[in-house]
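Board notes, transcribed. Complex of a protein with zinc ion.
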Amino acid sequence: MAKVSASILACNQVRIGEEVQAAKQAGADLLHVDVMDGVYVQNLACGPQMVADLKRDCGLPISVHMELLRPEIFWPMFARAGADILTFQLDVCRNPIHLLREIRAAGIRAGLGIGPAYGVESLRYLLHHMDWLILMSVEPGYGGQPFEESIFEKLQRARQIMEESGRRVPICVDGGVTEETGRRLVKAGADVLIAGSFLFQGNKIGRRVRSLKAL
Ligand code: DX5
Ligand code: ZN
C-alpha cells in the first residue's frame, strides 16, 4: 500500500484549510507543498508563511517541493517554517551533495527531485546523502498536465540502483497521478503517490484519497 501525499497546488486557495482537513480525515499521509519562483517554472506558488500555517493547523507532515532556482538560498526559510522534508530539483543544483548535507544537518529529511527530462543514474552517487526521492511524471510548474509514461522505466531503474547500493529511500511519484496511473505506479514500486488535481478537483476529496489509499 502506497502513502498518499496531497499536493495543495490544486486546492481552492481560499478554502485551503477545509480541503486539507478533508484530505487528512480521509487518510492522506502527508501534505505536498510546491514552491514556485516564476523563473525555474513559469508559475508562482507558496511562501514560507503558508508552510508555517499548515504546519501549525493541519497536523500532517509537510513535504516542501522547491521548484525554484537557488535552493541553497531559499531552503532555510522553509526549514524555519517547519518543513519536515525539503526537496530540491537536481537540475538546478551544482553541488547537490553539499546541499543535501546542509538540509540534513538542520534535522530535516533531504529530498531530491528529478524532472521527466532527466535520468536517474546520479542516484548511484547521491543515495547515501538523501532521505527522499521525487520522480516527476510531469514537467515542474503546473498541475493537471499529461502523465509521462517514461516514469515507469525510471522507477524500475531507481529501484535497481537502490538494490545495488543497499540504500533504500522512499520513492515518490509526482504528477498526473489518478486512480488508473496510481494503480500502475504502486505495482511498479512507488512508495508515495503525490496527487493534486485528482484529489482536489471535483468535490470528492475524501473519496479520491481513499481510492488511492486502497491501491
Ligand atoms: C508540479 C507539481 C506537482 C503538482 C501535481 O509542478 O510538482 O506537485 O501539484 O499536480 P497533478 O497531480 O495535478 O499532476
Ligand atoms: Zn510537486
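The chain has a mean pLDDT of 98. The first helix runs from residue 16 to 25.
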